[in-house]
Design brief:
alpha/beta, Quinone Oxidoreductase, Chain A, domain 1, Rossmann fold, 2 domains, 7-stranded mixed β-sheet, 6-stranded parallel β-sheet, 17 strands, 25% strand
Length: 337
């Protein structure tokens, strides 16, 4: 099978094509695993974190990709949940212990980091961590729901807002554009403010129903009850804390923050950023429950998923575009053409 493979970690400033198109053996499913023929795989900021060593794979080489959509083609021993031909998706959680806190369990294994992922024509996964895809979504539309959407759903739950309370979103890429639509559905009376770095992202947020959109340092009409931060930088964290009302909560939905602006955290002023019982909550991974709950919810809205398509062999360009260009929606790789 064809696959885009990461052989070594490297900065994208120095290595502009870290993934290599490779022919490798098609995997065989083990006990209680299924083999999936992958049609589409989403491209995520987490791949950048893997490649640049912020959350490095424990072993190399590895096939990245954890927003995979495809059809079941073979069942391992003991499988009973799916049959060949079923359309399924695989997210960041490849396997864990099945507990309510499986996202932070020592058993947690990540798709595309701890096990080969979806930047390939075939992949295996335990059948318990594959999810049926609602018919309302195409493969391209469904792929971002497996991580950008599902972890965004987790972040929204952790934000803990009630209908009518003010929600802020900092960063407006693959996850943000889905969270905004979901929040409008779940909390129809809540004003939603979007902080985004480019005019195109700000315009897109307003198109999808944000009440206000501006730059990270701009002041919205009101302080927020909760803000979800999906950026890889520290500066938006400080700006968000300043724009929370007393008792507000900042939910940081990111694997890592970039090191070059880490010194900004020394600028925290207790009276401006943390006083009045403000909270900071982080999102660590995603659980099977999150994905299983979110997919039918996304279909009931239904969410409008904006995607930009690339061929499998264009994965390096997709990653560079994700890192360096304003994002309008999500990026996906077309594996089966």
């Amino acid at each position: 099978m064809r696959a885009m493979v990461l052989n070594s970690t490297a900065s994208l400033n120095e290595c502009r094509a870290p993934l290599e198109l490779t022919d490798m053996p098609r995997p065989a499913p083990g006990e209680r695993e299924i083999l999936i023929e992958v049609s589409v795989c989403g491209v995520c900021h987490t791949e950048l974190d893997e490649i640049e060593g912020r959350t490095p794979p424990p072993q190399l080489p590895v096939v990245p990709g954890h927003q995979a959509i495809g059809r079941v083609v073979e069942l391992g021993a003991g499988c009973s949940q799916y049959s060949p031909g079923h359309r399924v998706g695989v997210g960041w959680i490849h396997s864990s212990d099945g507990s309510l806190r499986e996202n932070i369990s020592e058993s947690f294994r990540a798709t595309g980091r701890d096990a080969n992922g979806g930047y390939a024509e075939f992949m295996t996964v335990p059948e318990a961590y594959a999810y049926p895809i609602p018919d309302v979504f195409t493969d391209q539309e469904a792929a971002p729901l497996l991580c950008a959407g599902s972890v965004g759903y987790r972040a929204l739950r952790l934000a803990g807002i009630e209908d009518g309370q003010v929600l802020g979103l900092t960063g407006f890429g693959g996850s943000g554009h889905l969270v905004l639509q979901l929040a409008r559905h779940l909390y129809p009376h809540s004003p939603i403010y979007v902080f985004a770095r480019s005019a195109k992202e700000q315009e897109f947020a307003l198109e999808l129903g944000a009440i206000w959109s501006g730059d990270t340092d701009d002041d919205p009409p009101q302080q927020a009850h909760a803000i979800i931060d999906t950026t890889p930088a520290w500066k938006p964290v400080l700006a968000a804390l300043e724009r929370l009302r007393p008792g507000g909560r900042l939910v940081i939905n990111a694997i890592r923050k970039e090191a070059q602006d880490r010194d900004l955290m020394a600028a925290i002023r207790y009276e401006d950023h943390l006083w009045y019982e403000k909270e900071i909550k982080t999102v660590a991974n995603v659980t099977g429950r999150d994905i299983a709950e979110f997919l039918p919810l996304a279909a009931s809205v239904p969410l409008r998923v904006k995607v930009q398509e690339y061929r499998l062999e264009e994965a390096n360009q997709a990653l560079l575009d994700l890192r360096e260009s304003p994002v309008r929606g999500s990026k996906v790789l077309l594996i089966k053409q």
